Amino acid sequence: MTGRPWRAQTVGPVPGMDDLAADAELLASELVANAAEHGGGHAIGFALRPEPSPDGAPGVVCEVSDASHVLPVARDAGLGNERGRGLAIVTALARTSGVSVGDSGKTSWFTLAAPQPDAEAEVGSLAVAHVAPPS
């Protein structure tokens, strides 16, 4: 499932998330592409579910799992490079993001939340940790 049908069935039903559906699609595609490229050719797990942010705003969490234990490394892509911007994009647009490592591989995840009126913009941050993603 791609494009608008994917958004309508995943992020669209979450109240207040219509404006972030394109961001969710972009960030999920970045994590899936990384898993496909670096996951060793094994199956990729994908989950996207509603989850309110700590301040109660409507939100979603996305998790992409693969069998590799190698942590993603953010690169400083030069102007002429076609690759190396995925993690920077995730970090810039997500409310939070990170990587959890377990016995069967790793799970890269991000959260998005609908903006609250009068809320200051929050800059995302990439966390690399051995903890579970939000649940």
What does this structure look like?
The longest helix has 18 residues, at 21-38. Residues 119-132 have low confidence and may be disordered. 29% of the residues are buried. Strand 3 (96-102) and strand 4 form a beta hairpin. With 135 residues, this protein is of the alpha+beta class. It has a five-stranded mixed sheet with strand order 1-2-4-3-5, covered by helices on one side. It has one domain: Heat Shock Protein 90, CATH 3.30.565. It has helices spanning 3-10, 21-38, 86-93, and strands at residues 45-50, 59-66, 96-102, 105-113, 126-128. The chain is built from three helices and five strands; from the N terminus they run ααββαβββ.
Question: What does this entry show, briefly?
Answer:
The chain has helices at 3-10, 21-38, 86-93; strands at residues 45-50, 59-66, 96-102, 105-113, 126-128. Helix content is 25%, strand content 24%. The chain starts with a helix and ends in a 7-residue tail after the last strand.
